[in-house]
Amino acid sequence: MKTFLYIIGAIVLIVGALHFMAPKTYQVDRKIVVNQEIETVFKSLCSLKEQQIWSPWAELDPEMKVTYNGTDGSVGSFTYWIGNKDVGEGEQEIIKIEPNSYIETELRFMKPFESTSTGYFELKPVADGTEITWGLKGDSSFPTTLFMVFMDMDENVGPDFEKGLAKFKAYIEK
Q1: In Å, what is the CA distance from 117 to each residue of 13, 49, 131?
Q2: CB atoms within 10 A of CB 155
Q3: What is the distance between the alpha carbons of residues 117 and 136, in angstroms, rounded to a whole number?
Q4: Helix-, strand-, coil-residue percentages of the chain, each rounded to 5
Q5: pTM to 2 decimals?
Q6: pLDDT in tens, 88-110
Q7: 105/168 Cα distance (integer angstroms)
Q8: CA-CA distance, 174 to 51, in Å (whole number)?
Q9: What is the rounded CA–CA span in Å between residue 81 and residue 63?
Q10: Could you give the domains of the chain?
Q11: Helices marked H in 98-152 — which ranges?
């Protein structure tokens, strides 16, 4: 019985230490400059329907079911998707818009695991067109923090953002 209690105690200590060491927040972002006016870029990025055209995740499941609700491109509009194991199930809702400069969404993932994150696009005019920053940020709580010790969000999501931004650039510049 003592051995069992020592084992349980050790497990609790290890889990506690991992939780303590784990990052409690995350933020991933990537930037690109597109040769297009900021108004055109902003209008396109506000459209959840247009986002589906260049989304790096859309090609992971051509059979993914996507529905749209509300007035596309306005606060309160949202999209719901359900797909294979690569794309899972979730919703994205526009929660904040600052014309020609900022779009914020709430991403609610249901499968393969439940989580909520904040997605955003920041835009600024530059000499060659418009600089876009695409980002994702959020908080991690127990037990998700245990996975965050071993998972680098930047390594996991960053390449998808790079691919998506490259696809967006090709789309918006044609």
Answers
A1: 29, 20, 23
A2: 9
A3: 7
A4: 35, 35, 25
A5: 0.83
A6: 999 999 999 999 999 999 999 99
A7: 18
A8: 16
A9: 11
A10: 2-173 (3.30.530.20)
A11: 144-148
Task: List all residues 6 or more positions away from 54 whose beta carbon is below 8 Å from its beta carbon.
Answer: 164, 167, 168, 170, 171
In this predicted structure, what is the pLDDT of residue 170? 96
Would you mind telling me the total number of residues written for the chain in this entry? 174
Structure tokens at 62: 């051509």
Q: Which residues pair with 66 in a beta bridge?
A: 81
* Token couple for 156: 């996991």
| Angle, CA 132 vertex, CA 88 and CA 139 arms, to 5° | 45
Edge-to-edge order in the sheet of strand 78-82: 25-34, 129-139, 115-126, 102-111, 89-98, 78-82, 65-69
∠ CA 16-20-21, nearest 5°, is: 120
The dihedral sign for the CA sequence 84, 86, 89, 90: negative
From the CB of residue 150, how many other CB atoms can be counted at a distance below 10 Å?
A: 8
CB 150 within 8 A of CB 120: no
